[in-house]
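Researcher: Batch entry, complex prediction.
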Amino acid sequence: MQPHESARGPHVLRQINFGAVLRAVREHSPARVADLMQATGLSRPAVTRAVAELRDAGLVADVDETAQVSMGRPAQWIRFRAEVGHVVGVDVGSHKVIAMVADLAGRVVASRQVTIGEGATGARLLQSVRDTIVEALAKADLTGEDVWAIVVGTPGIVEETSGEVLLAPGIPGLAHLPVMDELHTLTPGPVLIENDINLAVLGERWCGAAVGSDSLVFVHWGVRIGAGILIDGKPYRGAHGAAGEIGFADVFSEPDAPDPLPLVGGGTSGVSEWGAFERMVGTQAIAELADAAHAFTERDPRALLSPDAVAAVFAAATEGDPTALAVVDRIAGRFARGLAAMLLVLDPREVIIGGGLSRAGETLLAAIERHLRPRILTSPRLVLSDLGSDAVALGAVRRALDHVEARLLAHPDA
Amino acid sequence: MQPHESARGPHVLRQINFGAVLRAVREHSPARVADLMQATGLSRPAVTRAVAELRDAGLVADVDETAQVSMGRPAQWIRFRAEVGHVVGVDVGSHKVIAMVADLAGRVVASRQVTIGEGATGARLLQSVRDTIVEALAKADLTGEDVWAIVVGTPGIVEETSGEVLLAPGIPGLAHLPVMDELHTLTPGPVLIENDINLAVLGERWCGAAVGSDSLVFVHWGVRIGAGILIDGKPYRGAHGAAGEIGFADVFSEPDAPDPLPLVGGGTSGVSEWGAFERMVGTQAIAELADAAHAFTERDPRALLSPDAVAAVFAAATEGDPTALAVVDRIAGRFARGLAAMLLVLDPREVIIGGGLSRAGETLLAAIERHLRPRILTSPRLVLSDLGSDAVALGAVRRALDHVEARLLAHPDA
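Model: Structure tokens for the complex:
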């Protein structure tokens, strides 16, 4: 084969081999060349060359031989230098910011959570995001200079290339904030912004309730409702970054009810404050249903909207309280209706229920199952989130690591 | 670079080059080597070798030089031998079977449509499918021996690898019929079975209303309702081959209405006869709405369920009849509700409305647009099907051609 026959040839192969050996050494570190040959299926010369490139790039190092016990001449052990770089995953929510710092092996080395006041919009919100990241880095004795990538998850619809938050009904003042510009002053590394639920599904696939799943829907169920979709193991964003917005589906009104007010164009944030589905079955609707059913007889009605109030209903249901059980059954029935519409469209293999309601536990899960099964044609596995409120930040870490890896593969010498 | 360094190297490149040149010569036939170099970006030796392989495989031939006018020494012209093989695309519907025969360039050289009687189930249905194919081939002076692939589209959920029709509420007796076994006695080529709407979307992308689209939803709207989904240019089937079954979505009942009877497990075909959405907005519901609105005062009520009756409503609406316009507005509003739920989940770039209702024309399309826009967050392009009742068969032809091409790339010598 002549080198000039195709411009794609040796270069592509070198990249493929480099990537395969990088993944193998990261997974099996420390490893010998023979281990890496077995893990990758590559020949000894190919592995040796890739290891040399990885060593030049500072990504692997030889393990000190005296640390190894061996008969005869010791084989050379190579370890992945996970500590050579770090990434930051950030979750910007309506009430809190979480920043997690991880090394290149994905080990979280520091994290920081900051509560955001109701009025924190615009510049103050931006400052909180920045401060949270800086404080998390400081806990790990790092600065922005050490960061190879930052990924920020926010609610709303995010434009893929610019990272601009186009619509964010959940956080007034977030849309069109210069998050990326602000964070670029913090680090020379790349900054990516992504819809939070699209990151949560990545987190659960990485180390949560559906490890390695190739066909997964993550439904965030809290005050708001939205879904992250994973197809062939990759996030599905839709043509305009707006896939999974099931919270806006209108599945309860009468057949010939008048059209709703337009979703887009109204409200202070450019999008309708609430979707029809989340209005009927979000945390607030649950609290109202529970109140109407007198499941809160001894509570202060002003506590109704706190997460504790909703948690109390599920606790009572788990203990067998008939009023609470009836409330749980009713909201599970409503939730199943909207979930079924989405599952009939997507037919995923696995469904994770996340967000605040994932803490409601097995009583709620069983009720959803009961109402869902008659409404769908196939049988996806239905589970609760493993990662809870860490899902978005962990997904952001995963996304940042993927970005770093893609850059390394494209420019191994950089 | 050593040949032993990676087993994937030269072989993969040879396949890539072979495929690139195959596509280029098919598209530009007849073409010169220089044209193919330009179309593929490959070097002259790479193109020349691929052309030699294609010639050995019988897929290209040199054009007779005397047919070309040229100053000086004529360049060699190569043409794609589209006539060397044929494929068959079949649409098995509840009332008809269509078979189309196409050459390897995708040119339809013969087609045959046969009406199926109400009672045609089991062996008789199978025989009709076979007869329709044989008759279509005979019109092109071909037999099953000449066929490189047959793809059959049927309603229902089709198991991907076995081609078994698992659930087919639309055609009683179709589920579990040995369609593949029957057709394997007709041709030595491969036989594939696929959901009809998944094929329709391929057809529209190939030569219909959304040529080349990478993000497309095709909604079949007739007696039944279902959708074909195309993501990154490829059909999305879901984890169990059941994606797009929006006809079963329950988007009209009251919030706390009791659950429906289970969709799966009932009825003679193992699945509920009708989905909630199609029951409210399928052709039959339209006829009933029109009847209730006295849009048919001068018609025989028994004609209500014929396609003509529904067509009459749309014709009257187009002419400005207020009663008919009100009916169209009402069904468009209902349809928009279910369509919105799907579009909020998928966020496609383009939406095609196909099936019988696609013939209703611009009056219906405008009414759908009006009811849909307030209900969604993004702005997909909404169009009517270009291919009408040919969409499934043409999509089956496209799928068969893709299958032939994939086999050629994997085994160029076969």
